[in-house]
Design a protein that fits this description.
The structure is a single chain. With 137 residues, the protein is mainly α. It has one domain (2-128). It has helices spanning 2-27, 29-34, 47-68, 74-99, 104-128. It is elongated. The protein starts with a helix and ends in a 9-residue tail after the last helix.
Length: 137
């Protein structure tokens, strides 16, 4: 199962990195430009640290599924991704709106982005991580 976990971590990390680029680098670019006073200048952003954080979150997401969630199946993975996506979307997206002067549209976008990213990650772990003897529904 360790090989499955490693492949899932890699797949989730790559998927989240690509989705982060699409969501934050393309779709929300104009929103970030309009609220530039809230963010570090681009040349001061800690992109290496952000990649490391994304990797650690990928590792934790997959490890929780692999070692704590039973039974392992595609449908279980999807439910896991949806639940955790909703929780992180509420806390990071809508929660940030409570104390940061960001537009509500950005908070909703962060919520939706988290929900989408973690739901897709749920599909990935549900597809890749299966225990021997367990069936993929």
């Amino acid at each position: 199962m360790l090989k499955k976990v490693i492949w899932a971590v890699i797949a989730v990390f790559i998927t989240w990195s690509l989705l982060d680029f699409l969501i934050h680098g393309l779709f929300l670019k104009s929103t970030y430009q309009a609220t530039a006073n809230l963010w570090r200048p681009e040349d001061e952003m800690k992109m290496g640290l952000m990649s490391f954080i994304t990797f650690i979150f990928s590792l934790c997401f997959v490890a929780i599924y692999a070692y704590l969630i039973h039974p392992k199946s595609l449908s279980t993975g999807i439910r896991y991704g949806l639940i955790l996506g909703f929780a992180t979307g509420v806390s990071m997206g809508l929660g940030s709106y409570c104390y940061m002067p960001i537009p509500l549209s950005l908070a909703i976008s962060w919520f939706a982005g988290s929900l989408i990213e973690l739901s897709i990650a749920g599909v990935i772990v549900g597809f890749l991580v299966k225990s021997s003897g367990e069936f993929n529904n």
